[in-house]
Amino acid sequence: MEVIDLAWWKLGLATLLILALAATSHLSRLGIARSLLIATVRTVIQLALIALVLEALFASSAFYWIALMALVMLLVAGREVVSRQGRKLHGWWAFGIGAGAMFVSSFTVTVLALIVVIGPEPWYAPQYAIPLLGMMLGNNLTGISLALDRLNESVWRQRAVIEGRLMLGQTWQEALEDIRRESMRSGMMPSINAMAAAGIVSLPGMMTGQILAGSPPAVAVKYQILVMLIITAGTGFGAVMAVSWGSRRLFDERERLCLDRLVKS
């Protein structure tokens, strides 16, 4: 089945819907019209540029270019984690914990899926590696930022309770146990909800894209199942690691709560 190409002017027609939404939000005084327009412009520019990069990357297929692309994606995702936290750790720790958790979970799960499950030749073939890693990082970004934001906000709001527990002789792990558990749950819930609704409430993006590209629905479903499983696993492990590292950073070597390490974004 031949894929129907879309002319840029046809995409402009779809942009009119965004302009109408921006006008509606402005008249309703929602305060998001400017953000909506900026996000739309960023989406168009970023995706147009990445199309050029991917075309060159697919033509080259050199490992070092793929590794460089993956590194850039990781660094940008780490920055987005910081920007989505209402209250964050001071200094580079906010970036380091988020990017580190995404690196360990996303890259490990992606490489495992490429080598063991899919098996392209070579295993880092950009046609498979870059889309899989992009989906992993995108979903990990959401899960980790939600988990860290919940952790930091909860610690700030319940600081008196935590310090009271420490005064009663509890360790920092015991004083923070319920907050850490709820923070990890917050990071995992979007992926779990997406899995529960897949195929009934929604048709996931990768499956829809493959069907539009002409792939048999059965093949598209298999890939979508794989993607959702590895995304959920990667997001879950990433949230657990980020909350574990972030909560430890909130205490010093004498297990005292260090609220000065939290700053308002």
Give the distance, in angstroms, between the N- and C-terminal Cα atoms. Answer: 49 Å
Provide the domain count.
2
Strand count, sense and barrel status of the largest sheet are: 2 strands, antiparallel
Beta-strand content: under 5%
Task: Please tell me what the overall shape is.
Answer: globular
Q: Provide the structure class.
A: mainly alpha
Q: What report would you give on this structure?
A:
- The chain is 76% helix and 2% strand.
- It has helices at 8-27, 33-60, 63-83, 93-118, 126-157, 159-167, 172-175, 177-197, 205-212, 217-249; strands spanning 87-89, 262-264.
- A two-stranded antiparallel sheet has the order 1-2.
- The mean pLDDT is 88.
- It is globular, with a radius of gyration of 21 Å.
- The chain has 10 helices and 2 strands.
- The relative contact order is 0.12.
- By secondary structure, it is an all-alpha fold.
- The chain folds into 2 domains: 1-60, no CATH class; 61-264, no CATH class.
Topology overview:
Layout: H1 8-27, H2 33-60, H3 63-83, E1 87-89, H4 93-118, H5 126-157, H6 159-167, H7 172-175, H8 177-197, H9 205-212, H10 217-249, E2 262-264
Antiparallel strand pairs: 1-2
